[in-house]
Design brief:
- By secondary structure, the chain is an alpha/beta fold.
- The chain has a six-stranded mixed beta sheet, with helices on both faces. A four-stranded parallel beta sheet has the order 5-4-3-6, with helices on both faces.
- The longest helix is centred in the middle third of the chain and has 17 residues.
């Protein structure tokens, strides 16, 4: 059984492996609560995963170390195992889903590991890693369902309580459940009054379903920008620990995750990957009863693929009303575009793109459609522009 002494031991072992990540007060992100961030995206390897894998590998026997280690991961655990193994002079082989961001694949290689790409998602990589373990005799380092790994992640809980004594709640991302198991166990062992909440992506709600249905169930598939927590099936150990120590679990949508990533960039100058931003999304969109409370959101990682960051930002802009598109039905005559642009400019909006098309399904035989993209402040600003256009006789077909 996991003990709080083991978590304290892990904090001592990890001192020369991990980087301190002190809490940061967040402003303008979740106005209903006093929000602090635990920035594990600034950790060595860009993720909390180094803690669990570092402690697990440090606790291996000499025989286990000689055989080399194998792991499976969506990317962050891979880098943690690779770096921890390299520091100990141990060979490592990592099975990664071929859908993992290229940046995570290359970083894993850069930390000294061999990489085996597996078609599918994390669970397919897991099956391949077990197959190679049995075939080659490697020592398997599980990404979450292991007591030493959980103890390593639990050191985050110790640090949170040490940094801020009077917190009311901690919000933690959930994939397989290793992170929240360790954090919740450590916090509840020291300060049982602190609420621990878990968050999953709506496109990968494996632990959420397991807790609400009372049993572990494997999802048929997962689909989310939060690739680091895209797990079809939670662990046996973590399921039991989450049942015992976690107060509630919620899910956040893709749009909410994108909005959180964008807000962290703008308000905190902080880069978070989708999995790391779900805890912030939960605070932003009031998924838990935290109004007026002192809350910590754990930003678990920052290894977002830069090639997908632009798409995430665009989605976040749309979610927050910062970017919008209007479809306007017009009479096809000179000056219409000029009038529409004038109204938008007078309202303080900025036109970013225009598409004009003649169509046969307008009310007027001389009708046409104008699709116009705008930069706006928020949804209220968009509505102000729509009202101004309607007041001058323009017909708004749709807005998004």
């Amino acid at each position: 059984m996991l003990t709080i002494d083991k978590v304290f031991h892990a904090s001592v072992v990890l001192k020369n492996i991990i980087r301190p990540t002190p809490l940061a007060k967040a402003y303008g992100i979740a106005p209903d609560c006093q929000l602090y961030l635990k920035p594990e995206n600034l950790q060595n390897t860009g993720s909390f995963k180094l803690r669990g894998s570092g402690y697990k590998i440090a606790m291996l026997s000499e025989e286990e170390k000689k055989r080399g280690v194998i792991a499976c991961s969506a990317g962050n655990h891979a880098q943690g195992v690779a770096l921890a193994a390299s520091k100990c002079g141990i060979q490592s082989l990592i099975c990664l889903p071929d859908s993992a961001p290229i940046s995570k694949i290359e970083a894993t290689k850069g930390y000294g590991a061999q990489v085996c790409l597996v078609e599918g998602c994390y669970d397919d990589a897991y099956a391949k890693a077990l197959e190679l373990r049995d075939e080659k005799g490697y020592t398997f380092v599980h990404p979450f369902d292991d007591e030493n790994v959980i103890a390593g992640q639990g050191t985050i809980g110790l640090e949170i309580v040490n940094d801020l004594d009077d917190i009311n709640a901690v919000i933690v991302p959930i994939g397989g459940g290793g992170l929240i198991s360790g954090v919740a166990f450590a916090i509840k062992s020291i300060r049982p009054s602190i609420k621990v909440y878990g968050v999953q992506a709506a496109g990968a709600p494996s632990m959420y379903n397991a807790i609400h249905h009372g049993k572990i169930e494997a999802l048929d598939g997962v689909s989310t920008i939060a690739d680091g927590i895209a797990v079809k099936k939670p662990g046996e150990i973590t399921f039991e620990m989450v049942k015992k120590y976690v107060d509630d679990i919620a899910v956040v949508t893709e749009d909410e995750i994108a909005a959180a990533i964008l807000t962290l960039i703008e308000k905190q100058k902080m880069i978070a990957e989708g999995a790391g931003a779900v805890s912030v999304a939960a605070a932003m969109f009031n998924k838990f009863p935290t109004r007026g409370k002192k809350v910590v959101s754990l930003v678990s990682g920052g290894n977002i693929d830069v090639t997908s960051l632009n798409r995430v930002i665009e989605r976040g802009l749309m979610k927050s009303g910062r970017s919008s598109t209007l479809l306007i039905e017009l009479v096809d005559k000179p000056g219409q575009l000029k009038d529409v642009s004038r109204i938008i400019a007078d309202c303080g909006g900025n036109v970013t793109n225009v598409h004009h098309e003649r169509a046969g399904d307008t009310e007027s035989i001389n009708g046409c459609y104008l699709r116009i993209g705008m930069e706006t402040r928020n949804y209220e600003h968009v509505q102000q522009i729509i009202n101004a256009l309607k007041k001058e006789g323009f017909k708004i077909v749709s807005s998004q």
